[in-house]
# Entry
Amino acid sequence: VGQNMIIYFTEGENKFLEEYQMNVTFKNISEDSRCPEGVTCVWQGAAVANIEFMGTTTRPMTIPLATTENEGRNYNKSAFFNGYTISLVEVNPAPTAGEGAKSLAGKYRIGIVITKGGEDSTMR
# Structure
């Protein structure tokens, strides 16, 4: 897996990422308030993906990652786990005006990028 390669997961999918020695499961989308396509919104909203990470020597940890940074709502686009920074870069499909997010449950696909190092590194 190359640097900054996007790794995709469908909802409920689990993968063991050998290069990072971690097991990753995309549990679900706990919230999707993103602005539907073709609608003008005051706030762009956010989708929050619950992703479980487990290193070979760590306990499983579910980390919510959001499509937008918003400290007031506790949304983070990336998190630090086991020596890596994990960033959520894609959540598809986007909600549509008619159906909203409810109809998307179970159909989501996310893309994450894993980079070595984290909080204290200069590789922002």
Remarks:
- The two ends are 20 Å apart (CA to CA).
